[in-house]
Amino acid sequence: MGRVGVLLLNLGGPEKLEDVQPFLFNLFSDPEIIRIPFPILQKPLAWFISSRRVKTSQANYQEIGGGSPLRRITEEQGAELKKTLIEKGEDAEVYIGMRYWHPFTEEAIASIKRDGIEKLVILPLYPQYSISTSGSSFRLLEKIWQEDSQLTPIDYTLIESWYARPGYVNSMADLIRTELDKLPNPDKAHVFFSAHGVPVSYVEEFGDPYQKEIEHCTDLIMQALDRPNEFTLAYQSRVGPIEWLQPYTEDAISSLAKKGVEDLVVVPISFVSEHIETLQEIDIEYREIAEEEGIEGFHRVPALDTYPRFIADLADMVEEALVQDPVRFSDLAKPEKKVKIYPQDKSAWGMTPVAEVWNGRLAMLGFLALLAEIFTGHGPLHLIGLL
Question: Best exposed site among 157, 285, 316, 338 by fewest CB in 10 Å?
């Protein structure tokens, strides 16, 4: 079969406070996060926004120890995956490719080339597919492949989405069950799934399957849990004034408090690693909201990290991908998928997910208004905290 490699894809995160601004710059430089009518201004605008947001973001990271643990945890997942594959008789090398911070995807590809990998499985650590997570990383990889002829001989395959796999579903159910069983009345606790949100426009205009996959995933986990607990699915981490998937996590917590819920078991459904959105947003911000609303018990299910059953399922995915028909970058653009990700539609110029998509006829007007706001220091973007 030749030398085998596995490329794990993830978001990345700043490891120390001085990393926060360059991390944010990389994030906002992604055209999938902010779309503007003049690409030449993408990086200057990313620099400006990251400069204005850095202090708030640094304060949040300070609350969890001064940096993100995402790289460390992802590397631990990679090491456990490699160990499990070796135990199964598959001597594969595992690489980590982050989208917005070290080790960058480009760094991982350089290592893959250097090591002479002949067959590669590309595995995003996002269980549910979204055009802004797996899709963004796949687009970057496709560009790298098109520009580097040395990659052409590599026999690669993509794993697009894996939220419905029994190994993953049962791993999540295991962790929820463990947390429930710590409570004096486990059957009365409310299971609260909090997923990272996306703008409604992603789903309705671009055909993003994320919401459908999250909802199906939640149902599968509750079936595997096989407990009588009531449950709720909500969405966190929204930014800006546009409509995101609902219900919003903070609103759902308030609603459950009004209904008399006393024990809330919070499940970070779209995250497989602890990071800023679990350790700070859920554990600190949402815990405070719950306590203020009168919910006495706020219990959080840990992220999967290196949970053995989860790692074993990742290894099974890799083995299956190596013997099945490969999925190529071109396969992602098939019309029946109805996901407009290759390339961006020029009529969708604007800011997403941090502002509404501008109508093409108003793009110039919006751009001029943006310039005016940058120089005057006043305007709607300042009001929502973006600038």
Answer: 338
